[in-house]
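hey
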């Protein structure tokens, strides 16, 4: 008997593993197929709370995990893509979307239909599509079917093994009668739900276990465990928020507060009117305990959302008080503004936001070029602190974006995204070189001051004109990089050529000034080096624009 219990316990763990693998496989490939749609949905978040709830429910239904949606939201808030208030309503919708998994799992209890055997056939078909078809879309659909099949196969393994553990000769073992069928203090059951869900990081998996236990469990017991599972699923997002911005931490706290308040709202009524509620669920769901559990999960999240949506602002204020703001300007620059490791599981979003981060890096490089030329022309050290902050930011972004691109390269990318990522490596290097030239020009400014010399008025005006051309090139190149338009590439080529011609003309003018004694040799040397550096900046910015040729027609 003992060996039988141990063997069934091992099979139960294996069943949980198969079911969770199925959930992850199905969710990951649904996400890859719908990646751009997920990005569009999340990009369409507005201040309309009901719209946010709907988007959260839809996205979570696609990716099969409220924890994953919340982790993604932590990333979006961390980079400032959405506000904390907008994220709050999406979190509420995510809790509704995650109940789809419970509804799917409850189908295993449908009378007269052997769902597991059908699911096994679906898994076999999915395996053939995943392993033997080269078409990317068919391959992903195969993995989706494989994952769906594994969910029910794992549930069947769990159900069979759980029966072997809790039943003996068709009767519940005494210990399980005590656990499942006697009345327990609700907070203990809630705690069980919290701890178990935190350990396996999936409220859906816990729901699957409750469904596997089936008829041995009273609904009055299951509902409190489900309440706890809604709190336990917040742990993933809380862990994910470690090391992020203050707003991102607040997002994770809002997820916890929402589920905690929902649990507190429901726990007393369910304890007092548990039997009456059980009868109500039987009327709504029929005699199947599996359907009752799934429907309660959905009903609980719907009611909690309806009750708490009007208090979204209050939840945000409470989260703000719990997590106060702590970050200096310099620290803010040494963080990503648009990308986050949480997006790596959604490659289309990660690639799109990497482009935004690179455009931000280009903006910092442009600012530093202007600041250092301004110092060179004025001869006054007014910008050195900001220039240093920007240079540190450019070095940070060079290292960190490159590391992020390396991680992204290891993901399942579309051919277009793969080529984009390959081109982004070179763009980041070009922008870092622009930062180096800005640093050089800053040093030239310091040398002029140390030597007690200044540029001629003509030289200053010429540098202003050249810098204006560089700024124009920055703007057009950034637009070409962002929008991928051929017409802009032609414009970039034209501006870059004009910079080369103007730089060559400036060298000739400088020679004339030297002959006329209108410029000192020391100042002239620095002037020529500055012109040369700015001309090279133009080359690197042009490279950024033309990087799109690697993928724009693919």
């Amino acid at each position: 008997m003992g060996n039988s219990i141990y063997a069934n316990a091992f099979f139960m763990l294996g069943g949980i593993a198969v079911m969770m693998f199925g959930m992850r496989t199905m969710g990951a490939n649904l996400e890859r197929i719908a990646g751009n749609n997920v990005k569009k949905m999340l990009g369409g978040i507005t201040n309309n709370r009901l719209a946010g709830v709907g988007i959260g429910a839809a996205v979570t239904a696609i990716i099969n995990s409220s924890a994953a949606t919340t982790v993604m939201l932590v990333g979006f808030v961390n980079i400032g893509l959405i506000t904390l208030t907008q994220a709050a309503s999406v979190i509420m919708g995510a809790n509704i979307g995650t109940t789809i998994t419970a509804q799917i799992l409850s189908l295993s209890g449908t009378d007269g239909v052997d769902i597991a055997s059908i699911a096994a056939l679906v898994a076999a078909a999915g395996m053939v599509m995943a392993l033997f078809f080269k078409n990317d879309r068919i391959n992903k659909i195969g993995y989706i079917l494989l994952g769906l099949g594994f969910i029910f196969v794992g549930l069947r393994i769990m159900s069979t093994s759980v029966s072997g553990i809790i039943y003996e000769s068709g009767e519940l073992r005494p210990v399980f009668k005590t656990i499942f069928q006697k009345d327990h203090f609700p907070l203990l059951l809630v705690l069980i739900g919290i701890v178990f869900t935190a350990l396996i990081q999936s409220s859906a998996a816990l729901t699957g276990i409750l469904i596997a236990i089936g008829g041995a469990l009273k609904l009055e017991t299951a509902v409190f465990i489900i309440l706890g599972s809604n709190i336990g699923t917040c742990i993933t997002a809380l862990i994910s928020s470690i090391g992020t911005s203050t707003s991102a931490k607040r997002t994770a706290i809002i997820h916890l507060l929402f589920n905690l308040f929902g649990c507190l709202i429901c726990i007393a009524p369910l304890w007092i009117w548990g039997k009456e509620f059980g009868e109500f669920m039987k009327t709504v769901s029929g005699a199947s305990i599996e359907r009752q559990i799934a429907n309660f999960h959905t009903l609980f999240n719907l009611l909690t959302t309806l009750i708490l949506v009007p208090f979204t602002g209050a939840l945000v204020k409470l989260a703000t008080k719990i997590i106060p703001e702590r970050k200096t300007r310099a620290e803010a620059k040494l963080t990503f503004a648009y990308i986050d490791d949480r997006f790596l599981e959604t490659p289309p979003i990660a690639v799109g936001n990497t482009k935004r981060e690179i455009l931000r890096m280009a903006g910092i490089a442009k600012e530093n070029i202007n600041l250092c030329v301004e110092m060179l022309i004025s001869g006054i050290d007014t910008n050195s602190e900001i220039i240093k902050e920007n240079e540190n930011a450019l070095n940070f972004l060079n290292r960190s974006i490159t590391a992020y691109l390396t991680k992204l390269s290891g993901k399942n990318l579309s051919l277009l995204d793969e080529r984009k990522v390959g081109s982004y490596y070179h763009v980041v290097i070009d922008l870092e070189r622009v930062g180096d030239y800005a640093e050089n020009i800053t040093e030239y400014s310091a040398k002029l001051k140390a030597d007690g010399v200044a540029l001629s008025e003509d030289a200053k005006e010429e540098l202003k004109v050249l810098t204006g051309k560089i700024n124009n090139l920055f703007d057009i190149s950034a637009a070409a990089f962002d929008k991928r338009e051929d017409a802009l590439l032609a414009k970039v080529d034209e501006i870059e050529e004009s910079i080369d011609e103007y730089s060559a003309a400036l060298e000739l003018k400088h020679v004339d000034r030297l002959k006329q004694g209108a410029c000192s040799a020391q100042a002239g040397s620095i002037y020529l080096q500055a012109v040369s550096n700015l001309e090279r900046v133009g080359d690197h910015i042009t490279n950024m624009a033309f990087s799109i040729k690697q993928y724009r027609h693919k």
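Strands lie at 167-168, 171-172. The chain has two domains: 2-322, 332-550.
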